[in-house]
Amino acid sequence: MADKPVTYYNRPIDSSIGTTINVDFSKDLVLDHESEAPLTALLHKLKDEKTETVSFKYAIGRMAPRSSTLSSGVAAAAVDTSTNVPVANPEYFVEGDVIEAPEDYNDATHDNQLQVQSISGSNLVCKAYDTTLGVAQIDSGATVRRISSAMIEGSDGRNSSQTVPTVYTQHCQSFEDYFDVTFIQDANRQYTHPERVRLREEARKKHIIDHEYAGWFSKAVVDMDQTKPRYQMGGIWSQITSNVFSYGAALSSDELFQYMILVHKPAYSAGSKRLVFASAEFLAEVNKLALSGVRITPMDTKWGVQIFQVVFAGFQWDMVITPALSEHKPGGAVVVHPRYMKKRTLIPTRYEMNVQVPKSRYYTDGFYSVDSIEFKLEETSAKITP
Predict the structure, then answer these.
(1) Domain containing 51: what range?
(2) The domain that contains 193 carries what CATH number?
(3) Average confidence score pLDDT of the chain
(4) What is the pTM assigned to this prediction?
(5) How far apart are CA 229 and CA 231, in angstroms?
């Protein structure tokens, strides 16, 4: 039996779908360019979460603070006498708490550890923890810290104490990088790759670097002044507000160690390790400190770049050189925890071909993405500038 003859169609739909289907380039976008765009490379290695709206919200839950400052001083009280302790944040405390003030005025009949009996306005109504003692003097501005609860036997329970998550809004940003090649340019034989291939790689690299710079430095906005809305994401640099450090003409080891201690202060939330995106100038300052006893260890990582590990007092900072910071914030660095970062995608990266006007004698190809960064618990991060 003869073979079935080949059948030709005026419009080969099957062939077209098989050869020109739009591939998701998101995971391969930074391939071979990880060192030029380490933030973008890291985000592509982390969990990517889909968003269904161009502006999306996310909630961050935090543990309630365990301390507050006195808004005015407290005089020493007699034995087994209640006294008002006025604090700036009475909402941090509940009756039944055991709190502690500085020990400056403890003596044989007064103590700084107190039991909260009730709360009246901004006052914690307190007695000394031991009823054979009185409340010691506490100076205005002193810090009062909650230790724990200690309830009476057979207690019916106490008032609830709970937090409300903070809700943030972030925007997905549209990235477009296209190029044009005339039919004649495309047909020309060249010493290098064909022009359309060469420009595709050029557009890919530009698309990567645009993502990198936006992820660091873009400021969140929804622009409604044009015929259609335009969205910018909030970059990491603008989101870090709690830990903003600066150093002088040269970074000292004392400054670096102090930064590390302050960044790790909310230890309940992030542990003892951080990733540091560093400009070349900042990394040079850190390398100078190796001469004064700071231990620096170069290491390779699975996501394509070399890091330098700094260890102090049980804290570990892994530093990676970041060209965008070297160019835009020389001497700067950003400390983050990858656990609290993720990429949010509305439209995955596409490579679009032949999007020129019909019958035009050129090709228009390019990359298109709509995505953003979700960045949580900024207080576990820091930015450092000279």
Answers:
(1) 21-61+167-235+343-375
(2) 3.30.2400
(3) 87
(4) 0.82
(5) 7
